[in-house]
Amino acid sequence: MNLYSKLQQRAADGKPVRIGLIGAGKFGSMYLAQIPRTPGVHLVGIADLSPDVARANLARVGWDPQATRASSLDDAVRNGATHVGEDWQALVRHPAIDIVVECTGNPIAAVDHCLEAFANGKHVVNVTVEADAFCGPLLARRAAEAGVIYSLAFGDQPALICDLVDWARTCGFPVVAAGRGHKWLPHFAESTPETVWGYYGLTPEQAERGGLNPKMFNSFLDGSKPSIESTAVSNATGLGVPSNGLLYPPASVEDIPFVTRPISEGGVLERKGMVEVISSLEKDGRPIPYDIRMGVWVTVEGETEYIRNCFEEYNAHTDPSGRYFTLYKRWHLIGLEVGVSVASVALRGEPTGVATAWNADVVATAKRDLAPGDMLDGEGGYTVWGKLLPAQRSTAIGGLPLGLAHNVKVVRPVKKGQSLSWQDVAMDTSTNAYRARRQMEELFGVPLRKAA
After folding, report:
1. Per-residue three-class SS string for the chain
2. What is the pLDDT of residues 326-339, one digit of tens each?
């Protein structure tokens, strides 16, 4: 509850938390918009493949151009300015940097960035949850071995869900279910970057004004990002995942405690203690009033009659039995909230969500019939979407992790709706990301089928 006062003290002492940002796209720009308004932090440098685009985004969010004219990282440290360049390695290796905020959205590159940061004694706030989904437990292990902190990013839904789960457990409540909302109908799984804005509810003009990436936003719509984020939550909290993918039960906020009960009690869960995503659309496509589309929630159980009476006495909205109560945040503010992670890591030494086990996985699943020679284009693209599965089941079928399904050639036919396996693709085994996945399989005791 005292992060802000700690930041003020760092500002008063002239010892700001020094940050390096990798990737200044939409999410990074939202964080950039808040940095000048936050005491006790100094953005030393930004590394981006296109420094000119990064500078344009800085201007878009209101930065003073003079603040980014540092000629080098050393110059930025001396003068309290910000250096913008392409060299991410120089950024993560600079001795003045305390925390690296990985914000590229590229899971293959993100693994490189995280591992190099750990090797140089830097904490990491990883916005690229796509990387966490296929090797987060390994990244957390490597960070701990290096004596640094690896964290999910507050403002993104996984960290907010982890926060709600922690609240519940700290209060003594058993967690029955936790998750996020989403606008979902089954055919959205087939969406491509060409169809995304109509399904998503934005005009092309609105998307262009906001600098929104259609492939990235399509990864939300087609179910990939909900699966990725649910995987991160499961691995961080120990909550289980559905045996054959997310169910997306439709519900208003008021109905969440009703549907997020076990099947045996009238809900949709296979058992207590699971992640799930609530749809803001009825199965026939009608919008649900007072939805949780942009928010997060946790359903807890009142185990005793006394606790259930307290729910009633304080007018807590429960399911009809009075046993299950849902606490929620109806909105999340994405990159505008990342400062909570930066402050928590730097000032408390605590992550805002981190993988503690390997429970869940996201498997690349065909959006259409795929033929030998087709190239997979990763989450949000034209070829595959991500299906959430228990890690044990994923490895049993040799499932291809969605985060590694980028620029990979298909070598045998795959039917629409079929989850891909390692044998279906010609995998590049030379990347740090692939090696991290293999190491994770070995460390966490689930054998990985040999890649073709």
Report:
1. CCHHHHHHHHHHCCCCEEEEEECCCHHHHHHHHHHHHCCCEEEEEEECCCHHHHHHHHHHCCCCHHHHCCCCHHHHHHHCCCEEECCHHHHHHCCCCCEEEECCCCHHHHHHHHHHHHHCCCEEEECCHHHHHHHHHHHHHHHHHHCCCEEECECEHHHHHHHHHHHHHHHCCCEEEEEEEECCCHHHHHCCCCCHHHHHCCCHHHHHHCCCCHHHHHHHHCCHHHHHHHHHHHHHHCCECCCCCCCCCECCHHHHHHHCCEHHHCCCECCCCEEEEEECECCCCCECCCCCCCCEEEEEECCCHHHHHHHHHCCCCECCCCCEEEEEECCCCHHHHHHHHHHHHHHHCCCCCCCCCCCEEEEEEECCCECCCCEEECCCCCCEEEEEEEHHHHHHCCECEHHHCEEEEECCCECCCCECEHHHEECCCCCHHHHHHHHHHHHCCCCCCCCC
2. 999 999 999 999 99
- As a whole number of angstroms, the distance between CA 91 and CA 44 comes to 9
> What's the rounded Cα separation, in Å, for the pair 63 and 201?
30
Angle, CA 431 vertex, CA 94 and CA 382 arms, to 5°: 110
pLDDT tens across 387-439, in order?
Answer: 999 999 999 999 999 999 999 999 999 999 999 999 999 999 999 999 999 99
Q: How far apart are CA 192 and CA 214, in angstroms?
A: 8
How do beta strands 296-301 and 425-426 pair?
unpaired
Q: What would the mean pLDDT of 244-257 be, rounded to a whole number?
A: 97
Cα–Cα dist 364/275, whole Å:
19
Contact 107, 225 (CB under 8 A): no
- Set out the domains of the chain in order of their start, with CATH numbers: 3-156+335-348 (3.40.50.720), 158-184+223-242+249-331 (no CATH), 360-443 (3.90.1210.10)
Non-local CB neighbours of 288 within 8 Å, separated by 6+ positions = 250, 251, 252, 279, 280, 281, 282
Per-residue pLDDT tens for 108-156? 999 999 999 999 999 999 999 999 999 999 999 999 999 999 999 999 9
Mean pLDDT score of the chain, rounded to an integer? 95
236: closest CA among 398, 386, 100, 126?
126
Question: Which residues are CB-neighbours of 346 under 8 A, at least 6 positions away?
Answer: 17, 98, 99, 123
Confidence of residue 445 (pLDDT cuts 50, 70, 90): low
CB 375 within 8 A of CB 411: no
